[in-house]
Write a structure and sequence with these properties.
This protein is an alpha/beta fold and 346 residues long. The protein folds into 2 domains: 270 residues, Glutaconate Coenzyme A-transferase (3-Layer(aba) Sandwich); 43 residues, no CATH class. 32% of the residues lie in helices and 17% in strands. The protein contains 13 helices and 12 strands. Strands 1, 2, 3, 4, 8, 9, 10, 11 and 12 form a 9-stranded mixed sheet that branches. It has a 3-stranded antiparallel sheet with strand order 5-7-6, with helices on one face. The longest helix is centred in the middle third of the chain and has 13 residues. It is globular, with a radius of gyration of 21 Å. The protein starts with a helix and ends in a 27-residue tail after the last helix.
């Protein structure tokens, strides 16, 4: 609890802003229970990993999920290994770049036939989300031409599940050139984490998004955890940061350190100390189960997770991921129209 109070004092002046008449704010447990259903196609982020939300999915023992995303980290591995998801469309499954993991346990699931997968490239998945967001049935690309993705081995391997629905090669009716047609991808639910939002669900984010913008716009349901809840006036004063508008968002979860042990641009860096422990735990089944029992299923929520971290490793260890300096624009930023910029032409 001391850690959460510290975070609120530093970043929100101790205030949580909410207009309950239109509020979409709820707990992670409430949001996952309401908006993540068994059998859903789920996007769970990559550059900003919604660890707090994924941990809650594991605790609620959701089943039959298909995890989709251009690249996936440990958050997807937990869903696979805990039996929450049995299918995935992705280009990559791995951990942070610390050299400690080779994904052995996930590879074992594939070999045992317990995890089906369809492999694409990062660009291909991003284009598929783009098509879903734009409401078009498919999108063409040339990037897969001449690759193994179009061979029988690449399309019909023992662990595939889409068949001909994975992609098609066709002729461009305008030029006669060959193109690859990728089907639109619309997740049933997208889980994400960002810097801030207001109570109406207008989410603002900055940093590296990857394919997130298209995935969030394409998704039928959207749940976002944020570091801060701010007044709507803050959102309106800086509209360029708005990643997804409130009418597209179903739930906002106020969850400081919701991306830990991953990073949140401007708030905290990757916790490489803890990420190494996480990676090493996925090399051995017994170690993995001890890790999950301690840090996911053995805690009730993110606050208890943070309390356990501080009790185990100390508050100073967690402070090491906080930024040393606060970056601010060197010039004022104004979205209001003025005539001052025309002064030289008068």
């Amino acid at each position: 609890m001391a850690l959460l109070l510290l975070w609120r004092v530093v970043h929100t002046d101790g205030k949580v802003f909410s207009d309950m008449s239109t509020s979409k704010i709820m707990t992670a447990a409430e949001a996952v229970a309401r908006f993540v259903q068994d059998g859903d196609v789920a996007y769970v982020g990559y550059n900003c990993v919604p660890y707090a939300l994924v941990h809650e999915v594991v605790r609620q023992r959701k089943r039959g999920l298909e995890v989709v995303g251009a690249s996936q980290r440990f958050q997807a591995a937990y869903l696979f290994l805990e039996g929450c998801a049995d299918r995935t469309r992705t280009a990559y499954i791995g951990g942070v770049m610390i050299g400690a993991t080779r994904g052995q346990l996930v590879a074992d699931l594939i070999r045992q036939g317990r995890l089906k997968y369809e492999e694409y490239t990062n660009q291909a998945l991003t284009l598929m989300f783009m098509a879903g967001a734009l409401g078009i049935p498919y999108i063409p690309t040339r990037s897969l031409l001449g690759t193994d993705f179009l061979t029988p081995a690449g399309r019909d391997h023992p662990w595939s599940y889409l068949g001909d629905a994975k992609l098609r090669e066709a002729e461009d009716p305008f030029t006669g050139q060959r193109v690859v047609l990728l089907p639109a991808l619309r997740p049933d639910v997208a889980l994400y984490c960002a810097q801030r939002a207001d109570a109406e669900g207008n989410v603002q984010a900055w940093g590296v998004w990857g394919e997130a913008r298209w995935a969030l716009w394409a998704a039928r349901k959207v749940v976002v955890s944020v570091e801060e809840i701010v007044p709507g006036e803050v959102i309106r004063r800086d509209p360029n940061r708005t990643l997804i508008p409130g009418f597209k968002v179903d739930a906002i979860v106020h969850e400081p350190f919701g991306a830990h042990p991953g990073a949140m641009t401007g708030y905290y860096d990757t916790d490489f100390f803890f990420s190494r422990l996480e990676a090493e735990a996925q090399l051995d089944e017994a170690a993995y189960h001890r890790f999950v029992d301690t840090w996911i299923t053995g805690v009730r929520d993110r606050q208890e997770y943070l309390d356990r971290y501080v009790a185990t490793y100390g508050l100073e260890r967690l402070r090491t991921v906080l930024p040393d300096t606060r970056l601010e624009p060197t010039a004022s930023v104004s979205y209001a129209f003025t005539r001052r910029w025309m002064a030289g032409y008068r």
